[in-house]
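Quick one: structure tokens for this chain, please?
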Amino acid sequence: MTPPSAAASAHRTPEGLLWEPSERWVRGRKGETTVVDSRHPVLVWEPGVPVPTYAFPREEVRVDLLRPAGNPPDGTHTGSTVFYDLEIDGELLENAAWTFPAADLAGHIAFEWFQRTGRGLEHWYEEEEEIFVHPRDPYKRVDAIASSRHVRVELGGTVVADTHRPVLLFETGLPTRYYIPREDVRLDLFTPTDHRTGCPYKGTARYWSWRGEGDVPADVLWSYPDPLPAAAAVSELVAFYNEAVDICVDGERLVRPVTHFTRALSTGPR
């Protein structure tokens, strides 16, 4: 979800980037080394990318740790022309940082986030709070609301969950997720997996896979055992990918949505 183009603080570049200044104090670290310490970060939305990234003024970056990339990638970021490797304590992290060619962002450097791409800086902070995976989008809301709706979930004709006490999670740009008490879920029909994902709004999720037959994606069921405060109401509850199961709410069968998760879901190990 990108900010509306009419937002007073948002700017669009000829390359299609949307950006706006942020007043948050942001730091990025690799191990014990602080690479970014910025009180003037800029949020940048790239075309076709559902989440923003930060770009930082060069004077608030440890540019002494950056080296011109030895093997720069092609087409990784919108119009990016200069990539940098990051060298810390003899370790070289390839293509950990880059610049955008837009005149508006001249003098700014962006970094990869390790939890999102598997390379780049490992720890990020806004003020004194650690954030994960990517910056939180100021134009995105996450609301977890207790409900008394009747929610039934089926897989291949088997009822795997049935509850009158769900928590509905409304997240901008995604279908409503129905979080269900474990007592109302047939967890005996699922196997815990080692798969984990991080969300800057909800925390770290653990997953289960379907034990039965049929064309069911792996890791179709998840839970946040220790969610972030904004999603505290879903603690220890479980949810299914609407994209891969049949959900009935108050007797009405929902249409399976198509989202950016649809392509990621697969029937093999993830």
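Residues 80 and 112 are 13 Å apart (CA to CA).
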